[in-house]
Amino acid sequence: MKKAFLYGILSSAFFAFTFLLNRSMNLSGGHWIWGASLRYFFSLPILFVIVALRGNMNQLLQDMKRKPKEWIIWSTVGFGFFYAPLTWASEFGESWLIASLWQLTIVAGIFLNPLWGKKIPLKSLGMTIIILIGVMFMQWENMKSGVNQREIMICLLLIFIAAVAYPLGNRKMMDVCEKGLETPERVLGMTICSVPFWIILSIYGALKHGVPSMNQSIQALFVAIFSAVIATLLFFQATNMVKHSPKQLSMVEGTIAGEVLFTLIGGIFFLHDGLPTGIQVVGIILIVFGMLLNCKVAAQE
Predict the structure, then answer these.
(1) In 3-state terms, what secondary structure has residue 16?
(2) The pTM is what?
């Protein structure tokens, strides 16, 4: 479990690049559609090389042929319906704000347990309430300052969709895959099966907003390397190690909260994001505190 926890924390550090670079692309005029699509187009050949060198390509292809419909559906949910809304949400606030709201995925992960016939960990549910209060504090300042209420609701809706889609797609694919199929193969397979979604989105983006700039393409490449490849492999490996324990799975998914601190520091120093206000700092503390308590509870299982 300690190893899974460490992988989770490391993945949160690399996932922070998602929020930082998406915000950077947004500030430089890049459209969110290309920020989302290019991440997966660039990560595809990298993952292909990794799996090919491991000699497991044939096993992956056989597994995908066995249940093609399930692979396409849950890969699109876990990658497409997760990352497109999350990238779009970057248009509505600082990188650390989006990263903080993204912690709703911890809540979603806990409430998905009944879909697998497992109970919701009641102690983890208490920690979830703390995290939700923190999220409310994060948005309170925006509501009080008169920020467009419609934009706030759109942002929250986008993040809610992403927060549910990510753990749902990940867990469903753990059920679909054969036992011998390891994390790199699963991530490559999901990337391949989500490509139709990204092609459709890219065609719309090209017709509506034109092609991406070189600057945005380079930043999207870094997102692909740090987030789509390194962070995703670490996180999926961590969840795979504890998938039979609802509490420990909730704990590992809770390490995502580390993204808040990593993104806050990176956003202030590299993007000159505005500093959080007093009540937003309280919100950040509550979110991180809730995550740490959740980890402690899970560790006692």
Answers:
(1) helix
(2) 0.84
